[in-house]
Amino acid sequence: MTLQESAEGSPCRSQLAAGLQDILPLAIGVGVYGLAFGLLAAQAQMDTLQTGVMGTIVFAGSSQIIAVERLVAGAGAGAAILAGLALNLRLLLITASLRQELAGRPWWQVLLGVHLATDENWALMHAVRARGHRAGYWYLVGGGLGLVAVWVLATVAGAAFATSVPEPKALGMDFAFTAAFIAILRSLWSGSTMLLPWAGAAAIVLLTGLFTPLDPTWTLILGGMGGAAIAGVLGDD
User: Fold this and answer.
1) Which of 7, 128, 129, 157 is deepest in the core (most CB within 10 A)?
2) For the chain, what are the domain ranges?
Protein backbone atom coordinates (compact mmCIF):
# COMPACT_ATOMS: atom_id res chain seq x y z
CA MET A 1 0.00 0.00 0.00
CA THR A 2 1.38 3.39 -0.98
CA LEU A 3 1.54 6.41 1.28
CA GLN A 4 -1.20 8.10 -0.72
CA GLU A 5 -3.48 5.08 -0.43
CA SER A 6 -2.81 4.94 3.29
CA ALA A 7 -3.58 8.63 3.67
CA GLU A 8 -6.70 8.39 1.54
CA GLY A 9 -7.96 5.61 3.83
CA SER A 10 -8.87 8.28 6.34
CA PRO A 11 -11.92 10.42 5.57
CA CYS A 12 -11.11 13.66 3.81
CA ARG A 13 -12.63 15.70 6.61
CA SER A 14 -10.39 14.19 9.29
CA GLN A 15 -7.30 14.78 7.15
CA LEU A 16 -8.36 18.36 6.49
CA ALA A 17 -9.01 18.97 10.18
CA ALA A 18 -5.68 17.42 11.19
CA GLY A 19 -3.75 19.53 8.70
CA LEU A 20 -5.55 22.68 9.79
CA GLN A 21 -4.97 21.99 13.48
CA ASP A 22 -1.31 21.06 13.12
CA ILE A 23 -0.45 24.12 11.02
CA LEU A 24 -1.78 26.69 13.50
CA PRO A 25 1.49 27.15 15.47
CA LEU A 26 3.35 27.80 12.20
CA ALA A 27 0.55 30.08 11.00
CA ILE A 28 1.26 32.47 13.86
CA GLY A 29 4.65 33.28 12.35
CA VAL A 30 3.05 33.68 8.92
CA GLY A 31 0.61 36.15 10.44
CA VAL A 32 3.43 38.26 11.87
CA TYR A 33 5.12 38.94 8.55
CA GLY A 34 1.71 39.10 6.90
CA LEU A 35 1.03 42.19 8.98
CA ALA A 36 4.36 43.63 7.84
CA PHE A 37 3.49 42.97 4.21
CA GLY A 38 0.15 44.72 4.67
CA LEU A 39 2.01 47.83 5.81
CA LEU A 40 4.22 47.62 2.75
CA ALA A 41 1.29 47.15 0.40
CA ALA A 42 -0.31 50.31 1.77
CA GLN A 43 2.91 52.21 1.06
CA ALA A 44 2.63 50.98 -2.53
CA GLN A 45 -0.86 52.57 -2.68
CA MET A 46 -2.65 49.22 -2.54
CA ASP A 47 -5.99 49.21 -0.72
CA THR A 48 -7.27 46.42 1.51
CA LEU A 49 -9.22 44.75 -1.32
CA GLN A 50 -6.22 44.69 -3.65
CA THR A 51 -4.02 43.40 -0.82
CA GLY A 52 -6.47 40.61 0.01
CA VAL A 53 -6.93 39.58 -3.61
CA MET A 54 -3.16 39.50 -4.18
CA GLY A 55 -2.65 37.38 -1.07
CA THR A 56 -5.32 34.91 -2.16
CA ILE A 57 -4.21 34.57 -5.78
CA VAL A 58 -0.43 34.77 -5.37
CA PHE A 59 -0.12 33.37 -1.81
CA ALA A 60 3.66 33.57 -1.66
CA GLY A 61 5.07 35.86 1.00
CA SER A 62 8.56 36.40 -0.34
CA SER A 63 7.37 36.80 -3.93
CA GLN A 64 4.72 39.32 -2.91
CA ILE A 65 7.21 41.34 -0.89
CA ILE A 66 9.84 41.52 -3.61
CA ALA A 67 7.24 42.26 -6.31
CA VAL A 68 5.74 45.15 -4.34
CA GLU A 69 9.22 46.42 -3.45
CA ARG A 70 10.13 46.49 -7.14
CA LEU A 71 6.95 48.40 -7.93
CA VAL A 72 7.71 50.94 -5.21
CA ALA A 73 11.24 51.27 -6.64
CA GLY A 74 9.77 52.19 -10.02
CA ALA A 75 10.23 48.91 -11.88
CA GLY A 76 7.51 47.90 -14.30
CA ALA A 77 4.86 45.29 -13.56
CA GLY A 78 6.57 42.71 -15.78
CA ALA A 79 9.90 43.11 -14.02
CA ALA A 80 8.22 42.88 -10.61
CA ILE A 81 6.45 39.66 -11.58
CA LEU A 82 9.66 38.12 -12.93
CA ALA A 83 11.54 38.99 -9.74
CA GLY A 84 8.82 37.41 -7.62
CA LEU A 85 8.78 34.26 -9.73
CA ALA A 86 12.55 33.89 -9.59
CA LEU A 87 12.56 34.22 -5.82
CA ASN A 88 10.11 31.35 -5.49
CA LEU A 89 11.74 28.91 -7.90
CA ARG A 90 12.18 26.53 -4.97
CA LEU A 91 8.43 25.87 -5.12
CA LEU A 92 9.04 24.04 -8.40
CA LEU A 93 10.98 21.45 -6.42
CA ILE A 94 8.25 21.24 -3.77
CA THR A 95 5.41 20.76 -6.25
CA ALA A 96 7.47 18.29 -8.29
CA SER A 97 7.88 16.19 -5.14
CA LEU A 98 4.07 15.95 -4.83
CA ARG A 99 3.66 13.71 -7.88
CA GLN A 100 2.42 10.81 -5.77
CA GLU A 101 -0.11 12.92 -3.88
CA LEU A 102 -1.48 14.53 -7.06
CA ALA A 103 -1.49 11.48 -9.35
CA GLY A 104 -4.93 10.49 -10.64
CA ARG A 105 -6.76 13.46 -9.16
CA PRO A 106 -9.12 15.74 -11.10
CA TRP A 107 -7.57 18.90 -12.48
CA TRP A 108 -9.14 21.17 -9.88
CA GLN A 109 -7.63 19.15 -7.04
CA VAL A 110 -4.23 19.27 -8.73
CA LEU A 111 -4.46 23.05 -9.08
CA LEU A 112 -5.66 23.42 -5.48
CA GLY A 113 -2.84 21.28 -4.12
CA VAL A 114 -0.18 23.09 -6.14
CA HIS A 115 -1.53 26.51 -5.16
CA LEU A 116 -1.67 25.69 -1.44
CA ALA A 117 1.71 23.94 -1.26
CA THR A 118 4.14 25.97 0.85
CA ASP A 119 7.36 25.33 2.72
CA GLU A 120 5.44 25.02 5.98
CA ASN A 121 2.66 22.56 5.17
CA TRP A 122 4.90 20.50 2.85
CA ALA A 123 7.52 20.08 5.58
CA LEU A 124 4.83 19.40 8.19
CA MET A 125 3.28 16.67 6.05
CA HIS A 126 6.62 14.87 5.78
CA ALA A 127 7.34 15.35 9.49
CA VAL A 128 4.01 13.73 10.39
CA ARG A 129 4.73 10.83 8.08
CA ALA A 130 8.16 10.38 9.62
CA ARG A 131 6.44 9.89 13.00
CA GLY A 132 4.38 7.07 11.53
CA HIS A 133 1.09 8.93 11.11
CA ARG A 134 -1.10 9.31 8.05
CA ALA A 135 -0.68 12.52 6.09
CA GLY A 136 -1.56 12.85 2.43
CA TYR A 137 -3.14 15.19 -0.07
CA TRP A 138 -6.00 16.40 2.13
CA TYR A 139 -3.65 16.92 5.06
CA LEU A 140 -1.53 19.19 2.84
CA VAL A 141 -4.64 21.05 1.68
CA GLY A 142 -5.88 21.49 5.25
CA GLY A 143 -2.59 23.03 6.27
CA GLY A 144 -2.55 25.24 3.19
CA LEU A 145 -6.08 26.51 3.84
CA GLY A 146 -5.10 27.46 7.38
CA LEU A 147 -2.03 29.32 6.15
CA VAL A 148 -3.80 31.21 3.37
CA ALA A 149 -6.59 32.28 5.72
CA VAL A 150 -4.12 33.67 8.27
CA TRP A 151 -1.98 35.27 5.56
CA VAL A 152 -4.86 37.09 3.87
CA LEU A 153 -6.40 38.27 7.15
CA ALA A 154 -3.03 39.50 8.43
CA THR A 155 -2.10 41.33 5.23
CA VAL A 156 -5.50 43.01 5.02
CA ALA A 157 -5.27 44.02 8.69
CA GLY A 158 -1.81 45.49 8.11
CA ALA A 159 -2.97 47.44 5.08
CA ALA A 160 -6.05 48.74 6.92
CA PHE A 161 -3.92 49.86 9.87
CA ALA A 162 -1.38 51.60 7.64
CA THR A 163 -4.05 53.68 5.90
CA SER A 164 -5.10 55.10 9.27
CA VAL A 165 -1.57 56.27 10.11
CA PRO A 166 -0.84 59.76 8.75
CA GLU A 167 2.97 59.45 8.83
CA PRO A 168 4.06 55.78 8.45
CA LYS A 169 7.77 56.69 8.45
CA ALA A 170 7.40 58.28 11.87
CA LEU A 171 6.65 54.80 13.24
CA GLY A 172 9.54 53.20 11.34
CA MET A 173 7.25 51.54 8.80
CA ASP A 174 9.72 52.32 6.03
CA PHE A 175 11.83 49.50 7.49
CA ALA A 176 8.93 47.06 7.13
CA PHE A 177 10.13 45.66 3.78
CA THR A 178 13.48 44.67 5.28
CA ALA A 179 11.95 43.36 8.52
CA ALA A 180 9.34 41.25 6.72
CA PHE A 181 11.89 39.79 4.33
CA ILE A 182 14.25 38.89 7.19
CA ALA A 183 11.35 37.17 8.98
CA ILE A 184 10.53 35.13 5.89
CA LEU A 185 14.16 34.13 5.37
CA ARG A 186 14.42 32.99 8.98
CA SER A 187 11.30 30.86 8.62
CA LEU A 188 12.70 29.21 5.48
CA TRP A 189 16.05 28.26 7.00
CA SER A 190 16.08 24.52 7.64
CA GLY A 191 19.74 23.77 8.30
CA SER A 192 23.30 23.93 7.03
CA THR A 193 22.39 22.23 3.73
CA MET A 194 20.84 25.52 2.66
CA LEU A 195 24.02 27.50 3.31
CA LEU A 196 25.68 26.95 -0.08
CA PRO A 197 22.58 27.68 -2.25
CA TRP A 198 21.81 30.80 -0.22
CA ALA A 199 25.42 31.97 -0.29
CA GLY A 200 25.59 31.33 -4.04
CA ALA A 201 22.41 33.30 -4.67
CA ALA A 202 23.64 36.20 -2.53
CA ALA A 203 27.02 36.21 -4.29
CA ILE A 204 25.39 36.29 -7.72
CA VAL A 205 23.18 39.23 -6.73
CA LEU A 206 26.12 41.10 -5.20
CA LEU A 207 28.53 40.55 -8.08
CA THR A 208 26.04 41.31 -10.86
CA GLY A 209 24.89 44.39 -8.96
CA LEU A 210 28.43 45.70 -8.56
CA PHE A 211 29.99 44.79 -11.89
CA THR A 212 27.15 44.90 -14.42
CA PRO A 213 24.70 47.62 -15.46
CA LEU A 214 21.73 45.31 -14.89
CA ASP A 215 18.65 46.65 -13.11
CA PRO A 216 18.30 45.28 -9.54
CA THR A 217 15.25 43.31 -10.68
CA TRP A 218 17.41 41.21 -13.01
CA THR A 219 20.11 40.68 -10.42
CA LEU A 220 17.45 39.24 -8.11
CA ILE A 221 16.17 37.00 -10.89
CA LEU A 222 19.67 35.73 -11.64
CA GLY A 223 20.33 35.17 -7.94
CA GLY A 224 17.12 33.19 -7.49
CA MET A 225 17.80 31.03 -10.54
CA GLY A 226 21.41 30.50 -9.48
CA GLY A 227 20.47 29.48 -5.96
CA ALA A 228 17.84 27.06 -7.27
CA ALA A 229 20.38 25.56 -9.70
CA ILE A 230 22.89 25.04 -6.92
CA ALA A 231 20.26 23.39 -4.74
CA GLY A 232 19.26 21.13 -7.62
CA VAL A 233 22.84 20.05 -8.31
CA LEU A 234 23.37 19.29 -4.62
CA GLY A 235 20.11 17.38 -4.43
CA ASP A 236 18.76 19.69 -1.73
CA ASP A 237 14.97 19.36 -1.58
Assistant:
1) 7
2) 8-188, 192-237
